[in-house]
Design brief:
With 488 residues, this protein is mainly beta. The protein has seven helices and 27 strands. The strands form six sheets. The protein has a ten-stranded mixed sheet with strand order 3-4-5-2-1-10-11-12-9-8. Strands 21-24-27-26-25 form a five-stranded antiparallel sheet. A four-stranded antiparallel sheet has the order 13-14-16-15, with no helix packed on it.
Length: 488
């Protein structure tokens, strides 16, 4: 089993009393038949009411126990057939006949409120609340929040601004500001890939403002907090008790700029009389916004300013970093060194085919099996072939499929289309968007494996796009599972 901390620990002050909440994710070693067995295992790990609250270590798995908080409530709930969530509520234990200098808590609490809270609204509209407490044991000072800590106070969210503890008097005066959505711990500046600046920030967002905050901070939108030209590429949030969420935003600077340029000179060959022929290639890399991608694609075959006079762009490679950002690499060469495959051939109305054999490894999970405690293969309970099997089946595959390699036929269809390959870029992108092909170019159910495109010329100089697309057929008697492959 694996137990990982999900949330620790939310401090709560209600009716002047301190409590804390935390949650853990309990994961079984393998799917346990029936919900009851998993819940029983989680309850055994959780322990009993009245035991010390578990405090997670830095790795989120090991834990120590609290000397201040004792568990008052345990809730265990299923997440899926392998995981469940364990929620703890803990409070300072109540003890009888506690007195301090002739003063008693009145209800046996080791920490108790003194007097009424005082609230004050500043000229900027912010609200501050102040309260005082007494305690019996100096160790109890650990329950009070640290400056900057966000906690729940009588149903509202507050950020601690001052916590004055007098150990001689055994008292604490707490002042906190009512929180709204706010930046925590400043903005971190990172050095990202290609030495492009990235910025990261963590926000506390109240539950009332969370929906609007999510809508305004989606991946690909401008990260206004990070500065001009920064866009969000990752958004992650975790619950902050019952009062809000902790949201981590990651952004990256995206603008059109040249990142690098390199020149390569190589020996292309030596003539019969000893004259060396040298080939020169210049490569440059650009970062650009998605709106300018088509403009860069159109440079194929053109004479770029960043290359030597007379060179043309011979190759363009695109790397999608996010919905907003692309890294584009362009190669430029002199035309006599741009190679054309199958030169001086006739390509009009021509279609070529190539056939090969590929191998597919079938894992136990793909076949629907798992080893039991005795090392014997058995069928997985509640196995979902629509999601876990590459073939369209209603039940587990025969046992001999486990850890086997099946052979599949691969068919490559090569078409020649009049015009430059760059005119087919959108069509090639659309082809890549779908993994399954149902009879478009070959009969039957097939997977789309790969595609390549290049320009070739006929004897008279007419340019054709050589479009090569490879499809993989399922093993004999099988059909590819569309639900399984559509997610890959």
């Amino acid at each position: 089993m694996v137990v990982e901390n999900e949330l620790y620990a939310d401090l709560i002050i209600e009716e002047g009393r301190f409590s804390a909440e935390s949650s853990w994710i309990f994961t079984g070693d393998e799917p346990i038949p029936g919900d009851g067995a998993l819940l029983d295992a989680a309850r055994r790990w959780a322990g009993n009411i009245g035991e010390p609250l578990k405090i997670p270590a830095q790795d989120g798995r090991a834990f120590s126990v609290s000397e201040e908080f004792k568990v008052t409530k345990i809730k265990v709930e299923m997440i899926d057939r392998r995981r469940c969530r364990i929620r703890f509520t803990a409070a300072i234990p109540v003890e009888a006949d506690l007195e301090l200098g002739g003063e008693s808590s009145g209800d046996g609490s080791a920490v108790w409120k003194c007097g009424e809270y005082r609230e004050e609204r500043q000229s900027d509209g912010s609200v501050f609340r102040t309260g005082s407490w007494r305690f019996i044991d100096p160790a109890q000072q650990a329950v009070f929040p640290e400056v900057g800590q966000i906690f729940e106070w009588e149903g509202g969210s507050f950020s601690c601004t001052a916590c004055e503890i007098d150990l001689l008097d055994k008292s604490c005066k707490l002042t906190a500001r009512k929180t709204e959505t706010q930046l925590l711990n400043g903005i971190a500046v990172l050095n990202g890939r290609d030495d492009i600046a990235e910025k990261e920030a963590v926000w506390f967002v109240t539950k009332e403002e969370f929906a609007d905050f999510q809508e305004e901070h989606t991946v690909g939108t401008p990260a206004v907090w990070a500065g001009e030209h920064f866009y969000l590429y990752d958004v992650d949030f975790t619950p902050y008790g019952n009062i809000g969420f902790e949201v981590k935003l990651k952004s990256r600077e995206v603008l059109t700029r040249q990142l690098s340029i390199t020149r390569q000179e190589s020996l292309a060959g030596v003539t019969w009389n000893g004259i060396q022929r040298k080939s020169v290639a210049i490569q440059t890399k650009y970062q650009l916004c998605v709106e300018e991608l088509e403009e860069f694609r159109a440079q194929l075959g053109s004479s770029p300013e960043w290359a030597e006079s007379g060179m043309i762009v011979s190759d363009i490679q695109e790397e999608k970093r996010s919905d907003k950002e692309y890294i584009v690499t362009l190669d430029a060469r002199y035309p006599k060194f741009v190679r054309w495959d199958d030169d001086n051939e006739v390509y009009e109305d021509r279609v070529d085919h190539k056939v090969d054999v590929a191998e597919l490894f079938i894992s136990p999970a793909m076949a629907g099996y798992v080893r039991n405690a005795d090392g014997v293969w058995e069928k997985i309970t509640d196995w979902k072939p629509a999601k876990e099997c590459p073939f369209a089946v209603a039940s587990a595959l025969p046992l001999n499929y486990v850890n086997s390699v099946v052979r599949c036929m691969e068919v490559t269809v090569i078409e020649y289309i009049k015009g430059s390959c760059r005119k087919l870029l959108n069509d090639m992108q659309q082809w890549s968007n779908s993994r399954l092909d149902n009879g478009t170019h070959i009969s039957g159910n097939a997977l789309r494996i790969r595609q390549t495109g290049s320009d070739v010329r006929e004897k008279d100089g007419t340019v054709y796009a050589k479009l090569s697309r490879t499809y993989q057929l399922p093993p004999s008697g099988m059909t590819w599972n569309s639900s399984y492959w559509s997610g890959l």
